[in-house]
Design goal:
alpha+beta; Beta-Lactamase; Helix Hairpins; 5-stranded antiparallel sheet; 5-stranded mixed sheet; 12 helices; 12 strands; 51% helix
């Protein structure tokens, strides 16, 4: 109906324009008396009617041709073989139909190309960000959204990549300089190293893009290099002592103590202890290596912490009983599940509880408390940004001096090296805890008071729950 009204209105306008000269002549004849007014009016009406009919046919045909050019669907190809009987200009009709078919074929090709480019853009494993002249993100692929964990399109680049080296390079490229490559580090949620390649476009794109920022993750390579350095600097040192001990006793048993049963039994016991120490060290090194390689991949499983903590406590109950100690687990009744890997989280709490047993006073209790907490009530960074679960492992040991707290999670760092080795520690337990917590995008908080004991609190992201009636969050120990 709107198209029909448009056709009639356009036809009427054209007919009036064409009839104006004839109407003017008839008006002059009527004024001079050469033609009766009634006859002049009748003649004008007749001319207007004839012109309206002719204009209607032309306008309808022209609108049809325009529709073929601008319509979403292409015209039927039969129009190229059969000339329309009502067409005013068959040649024009055929030419327009050919142009429309060619245009629609080209349009389909362009749409296919754009769809293919979009698919490639979306499937690239490396983050890709397109930036306009005002340093605002125009587009970003899914890998970039995953990396920054929030919507980035339409936001200024400095709000997303807070690194002066990258921003300076982007500013230089956007101002007309050649592309360049820089390296930088993102400290959160897990420290990651990237190579950033910034390339300008030959001409600004239709959406305003002037430069493309491509990020390549170098974290695995950097970690591998660091692990080699750490192994040479630390692991070789840790292995030297038990190896020297084993070599010395083997030489003694092969020489002076060859026929001394008492010395042989004593030396064999020490050798077994040293061999077990090396086995623990190698096992922890392998575990740490595996965890670091997977640290950038966040787990997606669900873990019932109440059940897991009970299982860990049961496994360590006999060890605690040897020192006259108790393991007390207190989990809130409304404790939500957490996002994580059950085996790795079991290793976290096994290490923390085992340390509490080793370094606490005999005949005391190790208290494990698990409660739900809201983001604004945690001591964790804002990166949790949602409900969490806090698990605190508190002991009644001698405590740790404040100057040692920042370094407790370093590889092979010991507050008291002699005591740690005597108790069978490898110096890697808390480093393993830190990397597992980082992989779970959680947070480890350490508090200690000299003479009273230490509390290690792990914050983990809770599985999103359906809306529930409001509750009062628990207090951290």
């Amino acid at each position: 109906m709107p198209h029909r009204l448009s056709s009639w209105s356009r036809s009427l306008s054209l007919a009036l324009a064409l009839a104006a000269p004839t109407a003017l002549v008839l008006l002059v004849l009527a004024v001079t008396g050469a033609l009766a007014p009634g006859a002049a009016l009748l003649a004008v009406a007749a001319v207007l009617a004839v012109l309206l009919i002719a204009a209607r046919r032309h306008v309808t045909h022209l609108l049809d041709l325009a529709g073929r050019l601008t319509g979403r669907d292409p015209p039927p190809e039969a129009a190229l073989r059969v000339a329309p009987t009502m067409a005013v200009a068959p040649e024009l009709d055929r030419a327009v139909t050919e142009a429309a078919l060619s245009w629609h074929r080209r349009l389909r090709q362009l749409e296919g190309t754009v769809a293919g480019d979009a698919s490639v853009f979306a499937s690239l494993p490396d983050p890709l960000i397109m930036v306009n002249a005002d340093q605002v993100v125009v587009r970003a692929n899914p890998a970039a959204h995953t990396l920054f964990e929030e919507g980035i399109e339409g936001r200024p680049l400095p709000e997303i990549v807070r690194n002066p080296v990258v921003l300076e390079a982007m500013q230089a490229v956007a101002s007309g300089r050649p592309g360049r490559t820089v390296e930088f580090t993102l400290p959160v949620p897990v420290e990651r190293s990237f190579s950033a390649r910034i390339e300008p476009l030959p001409e600004p794109a239709a959406d305003g893009t002037v430069a493309i920022l491509a990020l390549h993750d170098l974290s695995a390579l950097k970690r591998a290099d660091q692990m080699r350095v750490d192994f040479v600097a630390n692991a070789s040192h840790e292995l030297r002592t038990p190896l020297s001990t084993l070599i010395g006793f083997i030489e003694t048993l092969g020489g002076p103590a060859r026929n001394d049963p008492e010395a042989r039994d004593r030396f064999l016991a020490i050798m077994l202890e040293q061999a077990q120490r090396m086995a623990r060290l190698v096992a922890d090194l392998l575990s740490l290596s595996r965890i670091e390689l997977n640290e950038l991949t966040q787990p997606t499983g669900r873990v019932d912490l109440g059940h897991l903590l009970g299982s860990v406590a049961d496994a360590l109950e006999m060890k605690a009983a040897e020192r006259g100690m108790r393991i007390v687990v207190e989990a809130a009744s409304d404790l939500p599940q957490v996002v994580g890997d059950p085996d790795e989280l079991a290793q976290v709490f096994q290490n923390l509880i085992d340390n509490a047993i080793k370094y606490s006073r005999p005949n005391t209790a190790v208290r494990v408390t698990a409660i739900p907490v809201e983001p604004d009530r945690t001591r964790a960074p804002r990166r949790l940004a949602r409900d969490a679960v806090a698990v605190a492992v508190a002991d009644e040991g001698e405590g740790i001096a404040r100057e040692h707290l920042p370094r407790l999670t370093e590889r092979f760092y010991r507050v008291d090296s002699a005591r740690s080795r005597l108790l069978g520690g490898t110096g890697l337990g808390l480093a393993i805890v830190k990397h597992i917590v980082n992989r779970h995008r959680g947070h480890l908080d350490i508090e200690s008071t000299a003479g009273k004991g230490s509390t290690f609190t792990v914050f983990l992201r809770a599985v999103p729950q359906s809306p529930q009636p409001s509750r009062t969050p628990g207090r951290l120990p």
